[in-house]
Amino acid sequence: MSDAPLPHATGYHAPVMVREVMDALRPERGGTYLDGTLGGGGHAEALLERGPEATLYGVDRDPDALAEAGARLARFGDRFRPVRSNFADALSTAGIADGTLNGVLLDLGISSHQIDEDARGFTFRAGAPLDMRMAQASAGEPTAAELLNTMDEDDLSRLFRRFGEEPRSRRLARAVAEMREQAPLATSDDLLEAIRRGLGARADAGDRARIFQALRIAVNGEIDALERALPAFREALEPGGVLAVLSYHSLEDRVVKNAFRDWSLRCICPPAMPLCTCRGHALGRTLTRKPVDAGPDEVRGNVRARSAHLRAWSKA
Description:
By secondary structure, the protein is an alpha/beta fold.
């Protein structure tokens, strides 16, 4: 077992697969990059150190993350440009034109700080509020509690099935509906009780994690944002530019894998088509034939790295 410290980790967040991400993005080439999910700034710090001629837009919707990363990266001066935005809207918010970026990184999911801070509501530790918004100050975004207490039973069932891949979604939705008739669900304890009633006493930590994850994805519109953002980032890359994505669950990874596969095909016409009527050429090439996973030393030092998958694609 290695006792070496994790690179660029702080008490706020431990970035995953820093070396592998930098090898994919190659910031030593210089140019302009975008970190669409800045977090604590670990990947951004590594990129600016490895690429002394590189400039980086650091994007996050969470003001806490922007403040933490801003202080950490202040030494890079105007090479670091903070942007407060959802990553799906980052290009328009920052005024970035198509064909101008050398690389883009998306480190999906949530940061160590967000998980560890009970008030953010991402944890199933006792008494945590059911919030789960990436940016708690955002007006108009419902909390997890509001979704649980206002969605009809069929919609809740679809949420748990789509985002949590839960085969017993109807039973769980029924348990939530019965509980809220007595009192609104407000804390992690309430949701854990609904899971116990809906999935049975033998529901384990994996079941609980999937249901909390499903709510977080729904609250923040994560899958819809990813599906919208990927083609926009593709267009923002210059020829030879790289899009690297770290995903942490099968739903995210499937979206990324399918996008990279389709962009790397010369023809995307249905097999029965006698003549090609699509674009007729590949948009680029996938750099990772299969996802890159964290090594055993990193997983021992940061258990959250065990579910991470890195995929990378280069524009033609």
